[in-house]
Amino acid sequence: MDSHSPAAVPTTPYQRLRSYVGARLQRRLTAWLFASMVLTALIAGGAAWMVGRLASDGQGHRFENVHRLIVEQLALVWDEPAARRELIETLSGESHMRVELHDTAGTLVDATGSMCPKRLDRWPAVRRQGRDLGTIHLCVPRSDKTRLYVGVAFALLLLVVVARLFARQIALPLEEVARVAESVAAGNLDVQSPFDGKRSVWHRDVQLVAETLADMASQVARQLREQRELLAAVSHELRTPLGHLRLLLEQLRSDGPPSADQARRLAQCEREVLDIDAMVGELLANARLEFRELRQDQVRMVDLAIEVLERLGLDPTLLDVECAFAAVVGDATLLQRALANLLDNARRHGHGVKMLRIRSDAGRLRVEVEDDGPGFAEGEAERAFEPFRGSGHQTENLGLGLHLVAKIAQAHGGRAYAGNGGQRGAVVGIELPQVAGAERPA
Questions:
Q1: What does residue 390 show for φ and ψ, rounded to 5 degrees?
Q2: Domain check: are 335 and 300 in the same one?
Q3: 323 and 409 share a domain?
Q4: Of 348, 336, 431, nearest to 391 (Cα)?
Q5: Residue 106: what are its φ and ψ, rounded to 5°?
Q6: Among candidate residues 433, 411, 420, 325, the one with its CA nearest the CA of residue 371
Q7: Same-domain check for residues 275 and 388
Q8: Model pTM?
Q9: Do both 241 and 302 map to the same domain?
Q10: Is residue 28 part of a domain?
Q11: Which of 301, 311, 420 lies closest to 360, judged by CA?
Q12: 167 and which of 29, 66, 98, 201 could share a cystine (Cβ 3.0–4.6 Å)?
């Protein structure tokens, strides 16, 4: 289970945008490159503006001279419509602006150029021989502003595309390495470098990391295979002499009736042999969990429970079934080991098995064993599944028994639990996802 606290769900548009951009390296790089380009453009534009301001004194005088010349020319031809029209058309064509002439009463006298969306900028009055003739108004037409906005939008889009291309070239190799790392973390050690057969001077360091990671995964996979083979061989070699010991014990019993002391020692020897055999089985089951070698079969828990009860020599009437056809998906061998450990725990440390109960609860299947012991002491139930600890209702060391039960339950998407019964005894069990529609026979 992840030890980190869950991230807060974004609620505001800013939080959603930040979460979206932060989710992928390419998006973060695109945002940073785009911001860098825009900032560079703003700095360049600001520098150009400052240079223009420093050089504006002389240009300002020239503009004022041009301005005065236009006003004087309009004053000369104000009463000549054809000449006046030609002059304002020339001014509109050169400046790409709309030009309007108004008389002193504000009435439109003449105009040229496209309509403007806003009020026109007003120039000083046109005067002739000390008498006001009218005013000049100019503005940028809507079409020109639209072209300006489209140009700015296109420039920003081009910046985004370029930033995206750069970010992809930088982030794609890193994301490939991240996918390899995620695959290894998920237990898939049979991975290859995404750059096999591809050599690039731009991604040389990233390729080295990917190849090293793939080589490490290959070495770990090889070591795990060797450990698995060694464990299988050792378990076989251990069980062979254990079988011989059982045979020798049976032969000693068949040689004649032993004395009371001899019978007691034979029984002790047989218990030790059985304990070693059970320990070997637990180690093998634990190894299968560590190596993630789980089969995925549909298993009917009632049939499995009956088989385990018979194998342990327990009365099948101890079984209390609420859903006879309930099934789970998992490894039958490991589930059988979990049930055997639950029953063996109750038999050894809980004064005997009182009941093996199978019931269904909201799509989850519960298989629990209730014993006839004194139950758990306060605070001990939560620690019952720790390795090499006492169960609480007995102080004897339980080894890997219940700890293995918890690992098997977790490997099958479930959990193990422990507590006290209603009246007497402890209840220890596992809860697993139930196969849908398996409550009734087909």
A1: -70, 155
A2: yes
A3: yes
A4: 348
A5: 90, 5
A6: 420
A7: no
A8: 0.50
A9: no
A10: no
A11: 301
A12: 29
Last residue of a domain, one of 140, 161, 196: 140
The count of C-alpha atoms lying within 13 angstroms of the C-alpha of 262, restricted to the half-sphere facing its C-beta, is 10
Q: Is residue 149 part of a domain?
A: no
SS3 180: helix
CA angle 44, 45, 46 (to 5 degrees): 90
In a domain, 210, yes or no: yes
Full pLDDT tens readout for the chain, 442 residues: 444 444 556 677 767 766 766 566 667 777 777 777 777 777 777 776 766 565 554 444 555 666 677 788 888 888 888 888 888 888 877 777 788 888 888 888 888 877 776 655 666 678 888 888 888 887 766 655 566 677 777 877 887 777 777 777 676 777 777 777 777 776 676 766 666 656 555 566 667 777 777 777 778 778 777 777 777 677 667 777 777 787 777 777 777 777 788 778 878 887 787 777 777 777 777 777 776 667 888 999 999 999 989 888 888 889 988 887 888 998 888 898 889 889 988 888 878 888 899 998 888 999 999 988 888 888 788 888 887 654 444 434 345 678 889 988 998 899 999 988 877 788 999 999 998 755 554 4
Q: Using the 3D structure, point to which of 293, 326, 349 is the last residue of a domain.
A: 293
Task: Establish if 8 belongs to a structural domain.
Answer: no
Question: Residue 290 is encoded by which pair of tokens?
Answer: 């560590």
Give the CATH number of the domain where residue 216 resides: 1.10.287
Domain extent for 121: 56-140
The two structure tokens encoding residue 132: 């006001």
Q: Are residues 394 and 405 in the same domain?
A: yes
What is d(CA 167, CA 152) in angstroms, rounded to the nearest whole number? 22
The tokens describing 116, both together, are 């403007």
Question: What is the rounded CA–CA span in Å between residue 110 and residue 99?
Answer: 8
Kindly state whether residues 216 and 99 are assigned to the same domain: no
22: buried, middle or exposed (CB in 10 Å: 19+, 13-18, 0-12)?
exposed
